[in-house]
């Protein structure tokens, strides 16, 4: 029988993560807590990971390479200054760095001190040169032609200097940048770049087109067969603890169902994916498997357009937000297979999220009186604004029936379709008819960018704090859909420059109340993830960041004592 567990991934109130290894209902329970503590493993062994898509761009920080699958597959190849823990806290990577601190505030100055002996797989020391190159290719003032995925923060760095033979790196910023720890998440090797050409050529072509023969992480690529598989073995010059497994193979299998079938047959030993009711049921039928589920820093939410012929009316948006039962949406969707992933009542932090070691999440939704399915309260708001519900139809103040509202969703995403259908049902109670626009993959993103909707369902990653929100809700932001609020802009700008965690948390929660009060975002729940693997393996954790479960891959291994079945 499969191991049946409910494992708490973090021991905090309102925990972000929980895990559950499941089987049939007659399986014995094996409860444990704080399962993210590293378990004892033995050297040797191997694992094969199922992945949906092969790598098409070998530069993990390029505009095309910075995708979920490519980031996670290449994580074991690069040095990373900071690591996200399962409880969402961000800690220094002690294998790479002795320290990393803001040492001056005016101007903001950050100092990194490398550990002795950190090096690339060819023996070249990791040094200030690598930081200089990695910053330059993400700073448009130094390389306008470089097709980088992310430039915020990098363009604020005015100087980078090395001392102590390149071991100490000192950076000066033109203005405070609170998310400085999110920078340099993949450090590229400057000496390899030199062989590829100038900045633009090396970044856009050299690192993009060539399968890496180098590594600054625990593993190095031994073999890559395009579209079939990738095999990694331990980096002989790895400077940290481990790695434990002798071989890490990634096999490319498109569908989740097919991946789980391959897991059951022994062709692969790890499936890491967003679960559905069907895939969870399939996993639960397997024997001798550990199943973990948990949410991430990416969360699902509804959004309303705040411009246009009808949605520009704040009273209408408030009434919609009041009538919708967001808890019911969670219960009828992910609650069917990830019952421990809680409802979110904040649009700026996920439950359990920590900033600077401090609890950041708070329920700002309840006090606003929204998201609880209060149809009577919603009708009262509408009537005060001059609307009337007549024969089940909402009549506008000018006496004309409200037109049908368009709910844009991705038609191939089962979860988003379910959310649209539930919203459609709930809004009938206040006389609003919703038409579901189930767009295909080719049309969905352009329609979303153009604001071709009244209501929509999508996901947002919160790993960049206020920067994540500025991309959505800042005036003139590419995904703001015309939303503009001077107070929201002020709070986002202040939070992005605030280095004190407690002060930033206060600003962000104030921003949360503004955004939800405007109805531009209605949070639902963290995006659930599922990891399924044999109970002979250990130290495989769901990681809340967009870099996924491979963040601690050097700790993976065969358990000294396999989990009881």
State the gist of this model.
By secondary structure, the protein is α+β, with helices and mostly antiparallel strands.
Task: Please describe what this structure looks like.
There is one protein chain. The chain is an alpha+beta fold and 565 residues long. The chain is 25% helix and 24% strand. The strands form seven sheets. The chain has a ten-stranded mixed beta sheet with strand order 12-13-14-5-15-24-16-23-21-22, with helices on both faces. The chain has a four-stranded antiparallel beta sheet with strand order 8-9-11-10, covered by helices on one side. The N and C termini lie close together (6 Å). Residues 1-34 have low confidence and may be disordered. Residues 1-23 form the signal peptide. Residues 94-465 form the Solute-binding protein family domain. GO terms for molecular function: peptide transmembrane transporter activity.
Mean pLDDT score = 91
Largest sheet: 10 strands, mixed
Amino- and carboxy-terminal Cα gap:
6 Å
**CATH hierarchy, class of the largest domain:** Alpha Beta
CATH topology of the largest domain: D-Maltodextrin-Binding Protein, domain 2
Class inferred from helices and paired strands: alpha+beta
Gross CATH architecture of the largest domain: 3-Layer(aba) Sandwich
Shape, please? globular
Ranges where pLDDT stays below 50 over 5 or more residues in a row are 1-34
How many domains? Answer: 2
Tell me the name of the CATH homologous superfamily of the largest domain. Periplasmic binding protein-like II
């Amino acid at each position: 029988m499969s191991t049946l567990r409910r494992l708490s991934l973090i021991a905090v109130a309102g925990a972000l993560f929980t895990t559950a290894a499941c089987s049939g209902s007659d399986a014995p329970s094996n409860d444990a807590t704080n399962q993210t503590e590293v378990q004892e493993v033995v050297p040797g062994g191997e694992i094969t990971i199922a992945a949906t898509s092969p790598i098409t761009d070998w530069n993990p920080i390029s505009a095309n390479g910075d995708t979920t699958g490519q980031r996670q597959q290449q994580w074991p190849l690069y040095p990373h200054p900071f690591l996200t823990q399962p409880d969402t806290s961000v800690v220094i990577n002690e294998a790479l760095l002795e320290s990393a601190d803001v040492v001056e505030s005016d101007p903001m100055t950050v100092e990194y001190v490398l550990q002795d002996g950190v090096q690339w797989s060819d023996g070249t020391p990791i040094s200030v040169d690598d930081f200089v190159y990695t910053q330059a290719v993400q700073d448009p003032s130094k390389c306008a032609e470089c097709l980088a995925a992310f430039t915020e923060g990098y363009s604020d760095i005015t100087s980078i200097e090395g001392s102590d033979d390149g071991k100490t790196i000192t950076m000066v910023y033109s203005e405070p940048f609170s998310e400085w720890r999110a920078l340099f998440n993949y450090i590229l090797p400057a000496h390899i770049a030199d062989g590829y050409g100038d900045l633009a050529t090396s970044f856009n072509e050299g690192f993009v087109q060539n399968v890496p023969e180098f590594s600054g992480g625990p593993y190095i690529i031994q073999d890559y067969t395009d579209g079939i598989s990738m095999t990694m073995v331990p980096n002989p010059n790895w400077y940290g603890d481990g790695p434990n497994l002798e071989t890490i193979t990634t096999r490319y299998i498109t569908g989740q169902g097919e991946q789980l079938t391959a897991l059951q047959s022994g062709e692969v030993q790890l499936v890491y994916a967003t679960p559905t009711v069907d895939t969870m049921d399939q996993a639960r039928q397997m024997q001798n498997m550990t199943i973990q589920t948990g949410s991430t820093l990416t969360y699902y939410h509804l959004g309303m357009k705040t411009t246009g012929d009808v949605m520009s009316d704040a009273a209408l948006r408030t009434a919609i937000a009041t009538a919708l039962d967001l808890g019911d949406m969670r219960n009828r969707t992910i609650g069917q297979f990830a019952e421990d992933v809680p409802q979110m009542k904040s649009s700026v932090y996920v439950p359990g999220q920590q900033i600077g070691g401090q609890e950041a999440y708070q329920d700002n939704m309840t006090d606003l009186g929204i998201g609880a399915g209060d149809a009577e309260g919603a009708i009262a708001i509408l009537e005060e604004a001059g609307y009337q519900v007549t024969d089940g139809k909402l009549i506008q103040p000018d006496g004309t029936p409200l037109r049908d509202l368009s709910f844009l969703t991705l038609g191939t995403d089962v979860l988003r379709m379910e959310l649209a259908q539930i919203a459609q049902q709930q809004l009938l109670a206040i006389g609003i008819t919703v038409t579901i626009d189930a767009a295909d993959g080719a049309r969905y993103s352009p329609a979303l960018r153009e604001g071709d909707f009244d209501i929509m369902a999508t996901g947002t990653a919160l790993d960049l704090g206020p920067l994540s929100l500025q991309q959505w809700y800042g005036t003139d932001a590419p995904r703001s859909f015309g939303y503009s609020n001077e107070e929201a802009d002020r709070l986002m700008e202040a939070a992005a420059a605030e280095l004190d965690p407690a002060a930033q948390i206060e600003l962000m929660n104030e921003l949360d109340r503004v955004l939800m009060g405007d109805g531009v975002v209605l949070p639902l729940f963290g995006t659930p993830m599922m990891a399924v693997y044999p109970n002979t393996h250990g130290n495989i954790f769901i990681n809340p960041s967009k870099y996924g479960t491979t963040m601690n891959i050097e700790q993976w291994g065969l358990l000294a004592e396999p989990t009881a079945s």
